Amino acid sequence: MNLLLSNPVKIMIWAACLLLLTGCPSKPKEERPQAPGLVQVPAEQLPALADDLDADSLRRVIQQSLVFYGRVPPERTYALGHLQVRADRLKASLQEFLNLLNAQQLDSHTIARTFDVYRFQPGENQVDLLLTGYYEPILSGSLERTDLYRYPLYQAPPDLLTIDLESFNPELYAGKTLRGRLDGKRVVPYFDREEIDGRGKLLGQGLEMVWLQDILDVFFLQIQGSGMIELPDGKRARVGYAASNGRPYRSIGKYLLKKGALQREEISLQSIRAYLRAHPDMMDEVLWHNESYVFFRWVQDGPLGSLNVPLTDGRSIATDPEFFPRGGIAYLSSEKPRLDTNGRVIAWEPLNRWVLNQDAGGAIKGPGRADLFCGSGEAAEQIAGRLKHPGTIYFLIKKQSGDHGEAP
Asked: Of 92, 151, 237, 268, which has the maximum CB count within 10 A?
């Protein structure tokens, strides 16, 4: 539908945008976290930069970021804290890093000589970041609704509007968009999870892509953002993120913690799933607490991240693009869980590796969060669901003169 039909309609849309930004009751109460200070790391403070994964996977993941940078204008800028870094400089950083990788010269001395290295200075009583994990689930599904397969995955609805607020006021709304729908001549928030799954607002419109066995499979697939569907004939097809309803992401783990249903130290994907299966009467209340809803599309390759390039196991991370550059190279230092045969954590082991910033997510907000892609299937789920550990991340930008607030 054309939103530029007349001046009265434009005025209504502008007013609705302001209302949604300032007066919408679904706006989360929590304020967006402010960025701690971005600091450049002196050479003598760099870690050893040892890598616990293979060089081939590092080459592959770098090439995927280079594919992304081959698609964007060289003058486009991406945030690194208060810096704005041009795409061509980020691309050059990747190419130089790849040269050093091929020459086996990724030692801390060479890195410090070649790159400016940045990390965020955490606030008092804070770690640099909290590292979590995500994965690509493999789920049973059907292209037709049956008694066994009753829960749909939806493609993006045609009435889902994306309003570019920057076009209204570039200074105030730079990079901001808004999701909603038309109700007569008014723009209103798009349907939330309770309206879609509880009241069937999208049923019967031909938007169902595939049907799954369990509403929890639908919910956690939306959290992961992509997945593999195994059909009754044994064939597999992959789905990827298409759009969201624009509603705020709300953690159901925090909700269960607040209600006293789970203790902080036991919260994981597995414990949340087990609790809801044991308390089906709580299912709707808990799931509907998260108003955010994700729509999917069929994809050939993948799983795809927000850069629309395939993710690499153990190498791709998701961060908040308001703080970290898309496609950028970083060094991650943290710990990973070692599990027994029953999936219980028996120890925490060092995790030290080069990673590429190739994804984003509704739950990954602020400079103190990073999400590591752990792979596909059940084994990856066991690791990703339990990975929740403090760590440090260092971003690399190829050296050049004149870094005084805006990196050219």
From this structure: 268
Query: pTM of the full predicted structure?
Result: 0.77
Neighbours of 300 (CB within 10 A): 8
Cβ atoms of residues 270 and 262 within 8 Å = no
Q: Average pLDDT, whole number, for the chain?
A: 87
pLDDT of residue 25: 39
Whole-angstrom distance, CA of residue 394 vs CA of residue 127:
14
Q: Which residues are registered as beta bridge partners of 131? A: 370, 389
> What pLDDT was estimated at residue 403?
46
User: Taking a C-beta distance cutoff of 8 angstroms, is the pair 267, 132 a contact?
Assistant: no
Residue type, 285: E
pLDDT tens sequence across 38-63: 799 999 999 999 999 999 999 999 99
Q: Report the C-alpha gap between 18 and 22 in whole angstroms.
A: 6
In degrees, to the nearest 5, what angle opens at C-alpha 304 toward C-alphas 156 and 315?
150
Residue with tokens 């999936």: 343
| Strand locations in 2-98 (E) | 37-40, 77-80, 83-86
| R_g of the chain, CA atoms, integer Å | 22
Alpha carbon 308 to chain centroid, angstroms: 12
| pLDDT score recorded for residue 167 | 87
- Nearest residue to 251 (alpha-carbon basis) of 216, 293, 286, 226: 286
CA–CA gap between residue 344 and residue 361 (Å, rounded): 27
Strands of 293-367 (E only): list them. 294-299, 316-318, 329-339, 345-359
What are the sequence ranges of the domains in the chain?
A: 1-31+158-201
Residue 183, CB half-sphere, CA atoms under 13 Å: how many? 8
